[in-house]
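Protein modeling request. Please complete all fields; requests missing the sequence field cannot be processed.
Requester role: graduate student
Desired output: 3D structure, token encoding
Chains: 1
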Amino acid sequence: MITVNTKEDFEDMMKDNNFEISSAITKSILKNLKGKKKNIPILAIKVIEDQTIYDITVERSNMLESLEKNLEIHELNEDYEACNEILVGINYLKTKK
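Delivered output (97 residues):
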């Protein structure tokens, strides 16, 4: 779970391609490549200001696009081991179609 003070703080993290969020997204997708769930749970965001917890999910139909976008973030952060795992996931999803 990621805790932020305001909803805007979380939105800023997303705009800034936060590595912690990107890692959570890719790990969750890669763990669920072969599943049947329509929506994959990614992470929970706790917003202190309004005492709300948001559950972030990705639809199975958006998994390929999400991995491709997050691959760029991992490349910028020089996390090449994760990049390799992401590429394996991307190739799996492309050949599965």
